Amino acid sequence: MTPPTALLDIDGTLVDSNYQHALAWYRAFRLHAITIPLWRCHRAIGMGGDQLVSFLAGERFERQHGDEVRMQEHALYAQLITEVQPLEGARGLIEDLKSRGGRVIAVSSAKPEDTQRYLDLVDARALVDGWTDLGSVSATKPAPDLVKAALKLAGGGPAVMIGDSTWDCEAAQAAKVRTIAVRTGGFGVDELREAGAIAVFDSIGELRERLDETPFAT
After folding, report:
1. Tens digit of pLDDT per residue, the chain (218 long)?
2. CA geometry: angle at 15 spanning 196 and 151, to 5°?
């Protein structure tokens, strides 16, 4: 049997970027004299910027400053992006999934230039069967749009999301897709399971070792 398509999240799953994003958001809000505790910024990572600003600072701030703070966050993150590196085993996981005969769609709502950078970091451009970026959707996670866009790229059929955040799990669940989670984004086992993950692994390496315990089993 052909295994399900792997909808493989990029930020926090393939590349170690969550904490750089958290710091960039913290600094962007500080430019508006708002101090969002850094731990709260981290808890929102994985949620798209169109959702994150109101989630952390409220609807009024979103109306008044949303677009500006998103631009500032991107500029601040650009100062940190050279620190972002692939997580250990990232490319190997794609190779493992492809060797089992399934498709792999890289899933991101990052700006196109950032998505391209990450694909190159992981050396995944020629391996994956397609990818999404910010231009693929009008609403980002936890809305299901990004997962649906990835499914469309895959040509439909059964799929499983592999992600690192509760927002990945919620978006996939809303699209009626199961999620396998890794803890590389800094989220806990219990909260990932509560958000809908069918299995949680501490690292990409552990997931690769136990891939036969997942829906990708051969």
Report:
1. 789 999 999 999 999 999 999 999 999 999 999 999 999 999 999 999 999 999 999 999 999 999 999 999 999 999 999 999 999 999 999 999 999 999 999 999 999 999 999 999 999 999 999 999 999 988 999 999 999 999 999 998 899 999 999 999 999 999 999 999 999 999 999 999 999 999 999 999 999 999 999 999 98
2. 50
Q: Tell me how long the chain is.
A: 218
**Does the domain at residues 5-16+86-213 carry the CATH identifier 3.40.50.1000?**
yes
Phi/psi for 178 (5° steps) reads -75, 155
Q: Tokens 């809908």 — which residue?
A: 196
Nearest to 185 by CA among 24, 44, 25: 44
- Domain ranges (residues) in the chain: 5-16+86-213, 18-82
For the record, the structure tokens of 36 come out as 């969002």
What topology is assigned to 18-82 in CATH? DNA polymerase; domain 1 (1.10.150)
